[in-house]
Amino acid sequence: MNSLHQLFQLVQQGQARLTEIQTQLASKTVTASSGGGLVKVVADGQGRIREIKIDPSVVDPSDIEMLEDLVQAAVTDAQARARQLYEEEIGRMAGGLPFNLGNLLGGM
Fold first, then answer.
1. Residue ranges making up the domain that contains 17
2. What's the first-to-final CA gap in the chain, in angstroms?
3. C-alpha to C-alpha distance for 90 and 83, rounded to whole angstroms
4. Confidence label for 103 from pLDDT (cuts 50, 70 and 90)
5. CATH of the domain at 94
6. SS3 assignment, position 90
7. Which of 80, 83, 76, 78 is nearest to 46 (CA)?
8. 34 phi and psi, to 5 degrees?
9. How far is CA 79 from the centre of its chain?
10. Are residues 6 and 104 in contact, defined by beta-carbon separation less than 8 angstroms?
């Protein structure tokens, strides 16, 4: 029964740490660009787009499709970078857990 109580406490600690990481990620940003920097996108660590900057030289009313492609490429890259940041933070969390589940569950 003691092992079950320990497991419950560790799960609660893990949930608290995950909430903390998610809060931290919301305040971190990643930046991506496309078209040689003509379109820049800033996303937070959770992948939410916070800002899009478009160089006026790329705005051509006769070629909107190119601008759409550049925006899409920059957004995709920013979200991939945010996902990588998230995975790194979660990896650090998992690597720093102060217990071995195998040993804990074996004692039940």
1. 2-106
2. 7
3. 10
4. very low
5. 3.30.1310.10
6. helix
7. 83
8. -145, 165
9. 8
10. yes
CB of 30 closer than 8 Å to CB of 78: yes
Whether the model clears a pTM of 0.85, i.e. scores above it, the answer is: no
The pLDDT value given to residue 10: 82
Which residues sit opposite 29 in a β-bridge? 44
Q: Contact at 8 Å (CB) between 30 and 83?
A: no
Distance CA 92, CA 6 (A): 22
Number of domains in the chain: 1
Mean pLDDT of 6-24: 84
3-state SS, residue 107: coil
For 54-90, what is each residue's pLDDT tens digit?
999 999 999 999 999 999 999 999 999 999 998 888 8
